[in-house]
Design goal:
Elements: E1 13-20, E2 30-36, E3 44-50, H1 64-69, E4 77-81, H2 93-107, E5 114-124, H3 126-136, E6 159-163, H4 187-192, H5 200-205, E7 219-224, H6 233-244, E8 249-255, H7 264-279, E9 288-291
Parallel strand pairs: 3-4, 3-5, 5-6, 6-7, 7-8, 8-9
Antiparallel strand pairs: 1-2, 2-4
Helix pairs in contact: 2-3
């Protein structure tokens, strides 16, 4: 699954690096903060980025798309986090880490002038899966874990930007993907601890569609209709399930887009989604096709 490249710091921002959000000294449980250098009387809305890499590689340093969303005088702060990869721990360690990071950020919001009630979760590919889980499992105790010193804090997020993330491992297989979910050494087997055919209940419990309830966060779902890694059907299935639960959901389809793409119109709609849900602006976000180049 795709990774992003390391990007330079956005002008007007300072970076606070390698914050240990669990307190155990594990480099895979650290996050970076990107904070505007200008003072603000009001706490800043926060965009939290979760990287991709098939749950088996990647880093918080690969945050170029995040930095593109918080630059040019936008009022946002940003965070990019590491989580334990599959060579270290199997599911649900990854979502336990992400939730611990959100709890840490909320507990330290006043220290960094962050608004604990305005937190967007944005992820690409495997990161899209993890932010989707954040968006739909705010009240699911078994997925909270027991990491860190801030277990009394909520791990809920305000809204979710899911960029080509898996949503249902039970329907992931078949045509349209180069990933074989039943391959013993494949990325899904490494995540779940066994090929999908041998751990279907665990796969169901690792799927965002299994947890959708009417109080979940609004979603922006971005997916290319030619994605040969995570099938486009994963996006339409998630969108339909959210619609059925009457959760605000916007599906942006990259026409001819493969696995991860960017275009000016797409970025503008991502800006608009954040402005609506983090800034309270009455902006329209056209649903449907978006150029992939």
């Amino acid at each position: 699954m795709a990774q992003c490249q390391k990007a330079p710091l956005s002008p007007g921002y300072r970076k606070v690096q390698n914050i240990d959000y669990v307190g155990a000294g594990d480099p895979r449980q650290r996050l970076d903060l990107y904070l505007p250098e200008t003072d603000s009387e009001k706490p800043r809305p926060l965009l939290v980025y979760v990287h991709g890499g098939g749950w088996s590689e990647g880093s918080k340093d690969e945050a170029d798309v995040l930095l593109g969303l918080i630059k040019d005088g936008t009022p946002y702060a940003g965070a990019s986090l590491n989580y334990r990869l599959t060579d270290q721990a199997q599911w649900p360690a990854q979502i336990h880490d992400c939730k611990a990071a959100i709890r840490w950020l909320r507990a330290h919001a006043r220290e960094y002038n962050l608004d604990p009630d305005r937190i967007a979760a944005f992820g690409i590919s495997a990161g899209g899966h993890l932010v989707s889980m954040l968006g739909v499992t705010g009240g699911v105790k078994e997925l909270e874990g027991e990491l860190g010193r801030h277990l009394g804090q909520s791990s809920r997020v305000t809204c979710v930007l899911d960029f080509c993330g898996p949503s249902d491992f039970l329907t992931f297989g078949g045509k349209g993907s180069i990933i074989d979910p039943d391959e013993p050494g494949g990325v899904l087997a490494k995540l779940l601890g066994a090929p999908l055919k041998d751990c279907k209940e665990k796969a169901r419990k690792a799927s965002p569609v299994s947890y959708i309830t009417p109080d979940d966060a609004p979603f922006l779902i971005i997916h290319g209709d030619k994605d040969n890694v995570v099938p486009y059907s994963q996006a339409t299935e998630l969108d339909a399930a959210l619609d059925s639960a009457k959760i605000p959901s916007i599906l942006l389809t990259g026409t001819g887009g493969g696995h991860v793409f960017l275009s000016g119109p797409l970025v503008e709609r991502m800006y608009a989604f954040n402005a609506r849900h983090l800034l309270g602006k009455d902006v329209q976000i056209p649903e449907g096709a978006v150029p992939s180049k």
